[in-house]
Amino acid sequence: MAKFEVARRSLVLGAAGVLAAPALPRAQAPAVKLGILQPVTGALSQDGEYGRLGAELAINEINAGGGIRALGGARIEMVFGDARSNPEGGVSEVEKMQAEGVVAIVGGFASPICLAASQAASRYDLPYVVDVGVSDQIVSRGLANTFRFGPGFGVVTNAALDNLVALNDAAGKPSRTVVIVHEDGLFGSGMARLLNAELPKRGFEVLETIAHPTPARDMNNVALRIRSLRPDLVIPSSYYAEFVLLARTMQQQRIRPKGIYCVLNGAASNYRFVREFPDAANLVMDCNHWPDPRKPKTAELRRQVEAQNRFWLYNTPMNYSAVMLVADALERAGRADRAALIQALAATDGAFTKHIMPYGPTRFVNGQNQAGAPVNTQVQNNDIKVIFPRDFADAQPVYPVTG
C-alpha cells in the first residue's frame, strides 16, 4: 500500500493542471482553508490514510465542479495534520491549524482524538466535524462548534442489539451466552458498558467481558479464555489490527462459536481483512458505518478508490461525506466565517444530499445528526454483504455458523 507523505502540507487539490495564464486574468476568489485531521502514523495509520483519501476525493470533486459558488468559486485548500494516533497529537495539530487560519476541521477518527481535538477547537470557536469517533461524550458536552454526521455508539448499539435479537429469533434462538471482547480505551470501554447493560434485557447472558490494549501483540490468552467459556456468541469491539489478530488466533485454535457478531469493529467491515485473511473473515458479522449501496455515487467513489489499488473501507465514504457537509454549509453561509459556518451547520436540514451514507434527512440536535444510522454486514463468499436493514440488504444472514 502506498504511503502518504506524513509531513504537514497545505495544498490546493483539484482537477486543474498548469495552464497558460490569460493576458487579462480574472480576480481569483481567496481559497478556503479546511483542516483535515487524521492519524497517519502509529497504530491507527491505516484508518487515517483512508480517511484522508476520502477528504481528498471530496475536495477534488468540489474544486473540479467550480469550488464554493457562494464564495465566487473559491477553491478548498487542504491543511493536513497528523494526529499520530493519540489525543495529544490531535490537540497539537488543532493549534497549528488555528495558526494557519482554517475555517473548519474535519476528522480525528478515534474517539479519544475527536474528544480532545474538538475541545481544543472550541477555544477558538473553530467548527469541528467528526468523521467517525463514536463516543457520545463528544456531543454531550454542549460544545457549539462540534458536529457529528454519523451515529454514536448509543444508536449503533441499540441497532446492533435489535438486529441480533431478530437474527437469533429467526434462527430459533440458538444463542444465549455471550463473551464481549473490547479495546480498553474510550470507545471500547463505553461500548462494553452498554452491551453489559442491554444484553441481559434481551435474553442473553454475558459470561465474561475481556478488555485488551491497543496496540495488542498477542491474543492467545483471550482466545484460550473464550475456548474455556464456550460462549454461543463472541461480540468484539476493537480496532483493525487487534480484531484481525483475534480472529486469526481463534481460527488457528479452532474456536468456532455460533456467531462472531461485531459492533463498530475496525476490521469486520473491511475489504483488506477479507482479501488478506479470507478464512478468518468468513461469515463474521458487524454493525457499523457503511455507505448506501443504493446510491450511484457510492459505486463511483468505490471505483475511484480501487483504481488506486486501495481497499474499500468505511473511513473513505465517511470523510467524503463530512467534507461535502462542510462545503454545503459554506454555500449556505455565504462567507468563510467561522461563526456563520457554525450557524449554517446547526441549521442543516434535509436539503443536504451530497453524501453517500444510508441516512434520512440531516438534522442536528446538540451537534448530533439525528438521521445517522449503522448497517449490519456479513462476510460471505469473500465479499461484504448488507444483511440489515432489510429494505436494502443484498444478502440473507448465514447463522448460526456452527451447530
UniProtKB/TrEMBL annotation:
Keywords: Amino-acid transport, Signal, Transport. InterPro entries: BCAA_transport, Leu-bd, Leu_Ile_Val-bd, Peripla_BP_I, TAT_signal. GO terms for biological process: amino acid transport. It holds the Pfam family Peripla_BP_6. Residues 32-375 form the Leucine-binding protein domain. CDD domains: PBP1_ABC_ligand_binding-like. PROSITE patterns: TAT. PANTHER family: ABC TRANSPORTER SUBSTRATE-BINDING PROTEIN, LEUCINE-SPECIFIC-BINDING PROTEIN. Belongs to the leucine-binding protein family. This is ABC transporter substrate-binding protein. It comes from Neoroseomonas oryzicola. The lineage of its organism: Bacteria, Pseudomonadati, Pseudomonadota, Alphaproteobacteria, Acetobacterales.
